[in-house]
Amino acid sequence: MLDIDIGHPSSLDSVTHIIQVALTPIFLLSGIAALLNVFSTRLARVADRVDQLALALERANAADGLLLSVQLAYQRRRSLVLDAAVVLGALAGGATSSATLVLFLGALRNNTVVSALFILFGLAIVFTIGALAAFVTEMLMASRGLRSTVAEHCRSDPCTNGPQDG
């Protein structure tokens, strides 16, 4: 099955090279896993905020209820962007893993599979870029929401420009 004479020095070099090349996608996969962890943490924070808003909405009067409903819709949009980030990150992980598998299968078959590797690794990069773009979008949405909440609070209770010395 494997046309490599393991005892021959050039064969050992070939196997070593294959393992070294396979490590690159694995490092990318580790980075993608870290991103997915960040995305899931962000999604949990959005879910917690939705729970708080839903509870407050049950007790709110009509005027506050409208504001809370707007905030709930905003959290829904944030969760959709995070969903996109998670899906793109998962696709990037799948493409990266597939590229690694194709690399090993190509080595076992003593066959060059360059086009498949380029496509899969390219997809992994494109999906990772998409996941990062969705994450940046969600982060910007979160900061806009934070600034909006602070501005609303400052309208009802005038805010100061800095910490008060006591």
Any key phrases for this structure?
166 residues, mainly alpha
Give an account of the 3D structure.
With 166 residues, the chain is an all-alpha fold. The protein has one domain (13-152). Helix content is 85%, strand content 0%. It has 3 helices and no strands. The chain has helices spanning 9-59, 62-108, 114-156. The relative contact order is 0.12.
Describe the structure concisely.
The protein is mainly alpha-helical and about 170 residues long.
How many domain regions?
1
Report the sheet with the most strands, covering strand number, pairing sense and barrel closure.
none
Please give the radius of gyration in angstroms: 25 Å
Runs in which pLDDT lies below 50 for 5 or more consecutive residues are: none
Strand content: under 5%
Write the SSE topology.
Blueprint: H1 9-59, H2 62-108, H3 114-156
